[in-house]
Amino acid sequence: MIIDHFHNYPLISLKSVDFLIFKNVFELIKRGEHLHLMGIQNIVALKANQNRGLSNLLKIAFPNV
Known about the structure:
Blueprint: H1 2-8, H2 15-30, H3 37-48, H4 56-61
Helix pairs in contact: 2-3
């Protein structure tokens, strides 16, 4: 799995932060938190912290993030 690969061979750039956010989102989805509004809002908030941030569509859909 990709998470295991980057755990064994960590990134040494700013992309390492994006990977940690991706890993957190993966864990949220694995626990089923994406099935509830608070879980989706949490995932969108994490996405906002990634390198590219939120798309315009997500900014419109989640204006409070």
